[in-house]
Amino acid sequence: MKQEENMDFLQRVYEKGKKIYGEYAKRLLDMEYGYIEKNKEVFSIAADAAEISKKCGYQIFTAGAAGSSITLFFMGVTDINPMLPHYICDKCGYMEIYEKEEDGFDMPQKKCAVCGSELRSDGHNIPFISFAGLNGEKKPDLAFLISGHIADKLTAKLKSRGLRVVCNTKLGDILIYLKNSVLPDVRFLFNKYSDIIHELEQKTDIKYDTVPVVASDGKADYLADILGWDMWDGEVYNYTGYYKINEYCKPKKFSDYAKMNGYINSTDTESIFSGKHFAHREDMYLYMKQLGHGDKDAYEIMYSMHGEKILCPKAYNILSMIIGFKLIWYKKNYPYEFDCVMEKYFIR
Fold this sequence. Notes:
By secondary structure, this protein is an alpha+beta fold. It is built from 15 helices and eight strands. The strands form two sheets. The protein has a five-stranded mixed sheet with strand order 1-5-8-7-6.
C-alpha cells in the first residue's frame, strides 16, 4: 500500500474520533498508534469493509476481542466503545470519566454541567491488551460479521488493492491473505443479523444506529424471547441455559446481562480465586490488577487461566447484548414488522 494511502487512512480515523471526543481522540489513538502503524494494512482492510457495508445499508460487526480497539470503534467497524465508563456531551464536548463504574450503559441520565444538554453515557472498560497483547506482540485476529449481500463489492474492492482474496459463498466467508501469508490475515463471516437489521430498518424507517440500548430490571423475558428465535436455528443451548443463568444473576442493568451472556457461552466460569466467578476473559486481568499485580503478571494469569476455562472476550458478550437489546426495541415498538422479518430468517 502506498504511504499516502496509509496516512489518509489514519487521518480519516482521527477525524472520525475528533467528531466525538475532540482533541481527546488523539490521546486515545496514541495509545494504539504503534500497534496500528505496525499492522496498518489489515486495519485499512477493515476500514474499506466498513465503508462499503455502510454505503450499502448494512451493519458490520467485530467478532472476538477486536472490539477492544478504540481505532476500530472510530472506524465504525464496531458499536463497542472500549473506553472507561464516561459521560460525553455531543453538543459542547464536556466529558466525565468514571473509573469505578462497571459499564457506561449502567449509568443514570445526567445533564451537562456546561450547557445543560442531556449527556450520553458510553464505555465498557475493555483493555486493549486483550486484542494486541501485553506489548503489542499479538498478530491481529481480525474477524468481522457482514452481510453476504456485500460480498461481491467487497471482494472486488480488495482485489483491486492487489490482495489475495478467497470468497466462499457456500461456506459464507471471505478470507484475505497478505503477501506470503499461509493463514488468512482477515476474515469476513456472513451474518444473518446484518440482513435482519437491514430489513427492520427498511420496514420501520428507523435506523439501527439511533435505537437506544436500554437494559433494566424486567427486560429478562424480552431477551429470552429474542434468544428463543435462535432455538429454532439449532442453537438450543442459548435458550435452555438462559433461564438458569437468569435466576443466578438476577440482572438489573446492562453489565449484568453482558455477564449472563458470558456465563452462557463459557465452558466453566468457576474461578480458583475464592469462588469468584468470571464472565469475561478480561475480568481475570482486571481482578488481578485490583489485587495489586502488575500488568505482566495480570496478563499472564489471565491467559494461563483462559487455557483451563474457556471464556469469551468481553467485547463479544457486549456486542451480543447491544444487538439483543436493540432487537428488543424493534420488537416492542414494531411487533408486526419484527415478526415478519424474523419468520423469514428463522423457521419456527
